[in-house]
Specification:
This protein is α/β, with parallel strands linked by helices and about 325 residues long. About 25% of the residues lie in helices and about 25% in strands.
Length: about 325
């Protein structure tokens, strides 16, 4: 699919990340990124709300001993930009990262990966992904969570494989709680995320899909029973809503055939169709661009980061 994704970008509040430590065993110090000590004072606090982006700052960097990961040298909105995971099979995987200063590898942290839309892809320029607020809003829900915002090459199978490879890298190189691994995809990133759900859904605790269409294998997802939340405008100007309606109905049928109750199915799949009023209240006349407002919806983001877990308790 070679069509352009028209995604408009918004600034938002974020937390400043001043350390990137990759190791379950701190003695290895495979990756360490830090600023000068004079720049690290009071950096654990949430930044005051502002529309100004953080200026790029030079960082001291090291590359992993194996050469697998090159750490970026810019900071934007509290994230280190243009980290690059080098893989033989899929090439270079670019992403921005937020790692809480409190992370030292001694206890498991949650992991959240967000897949931005067309305007956040790597060819759009380093840091273009940081125009979406899903990554910067995430730390508000869990202060012990590593957040990655990708800059992939497309919204197809190759990028789905890249997403899986990046997830597996962090699961193996960081102390991650496997019961708290969350995935999100916006617009074209949502298509990529749906492919991931049709390939390796068992890697993830839950998947949030916003303003997109479903391209992945629903039967594979149904077998894994990974909870999925689909949010979109009823009249999304790019995708419409029929694709997600059809995916929801088909997935629901799979679960009925497996003997799940209505309550169990409701805990596994949510289809949230928004009318124009929802987007107008958020300042958007276009429902597709208005999908960026989902990042600030506490009910939707709260579901991803825990409310769905309470349903299974």
């Amino acid at each position: 699919m070679g069509k352009m994704r028209k995604i408009f970008l918004l600034p938002a509040v974020c937390m400043m990340a001043l350390s990137l430590v990759s190791c379950k065993d701190m003695d290895n110090e495979q990756v360490l990124v830090s600023q000068e000590s004079s720049e690290t004072e009071n950096t654990a606090a949430v930044l005051p709300e502002t529309e100004e982006e953080d200026s790029a700052q030079e960082l001291q960097t090291e590359v992993t001993a194996s050469g697998e990961l090159t750490v970026g040298t810019q900071m934007q909105r509290g994230f280190i930009n243009d980290n690059t995971l080098h893989t033989e099979e899929y090439g270079d995987i670019h992403f921005s990262s937020y790692i809480p200063e409190s992370y030292d590898g001694s206890e498991p942290y949650a992991l959240f990966i967000t897949l931005p839309g067309w305007e956040g892809l790597y060819f759009q320029g380093v840091g273009a992904n940081m125009g979406e607020d899903f990554g910067t809003e995430a730390p508000k829900y869990n202060d012990k969570m590593i957040v990655l915002s990708t800059q992939l090459d497309d919204w197809g199978e190759n990028s789905a494989n890249m997403t899986i490879a990046l997830t597996e890298y962090f699961l193996s190189h960081y102390n991650i709680d496997p019961e708290k691994v969350y995935l999100h995809g916006m617009s074209g990133g949502g298509e990529t995320g749906s492919l991931v759900m049709g390939m390796r859904p068992e890697l993830y605790t839950a998947y949030l899909m916003t303003s997109s269409q479903w391209d992945g294998d629903l039967e594979v997802l149904a077998q894994a029973r990974t909870p999925v939340y689909m949010a979109i405008g009823e009249d999304d100007s790019y995708y419409g809503s029929s694709s997600l309606k059809e995916a929801y109905a088909e997935l629901r049928e799979f679960y009925l055939e497996e003997g799940l109750s209505e309550e169990e199915i409701e805990n596994l799949i949510v289809l949230d169709l928004k009318e124009q009023e929802y987007f107008s209240e958020a300042g958007y006349s276009d429902q597709h661009a208005g999908g960026l407002a989902f990042a600030h919806d506490e009910a939707i983001m709260g579901w991803l980061f825990g409310e769905h877990e309470e349903a299974f308790a």
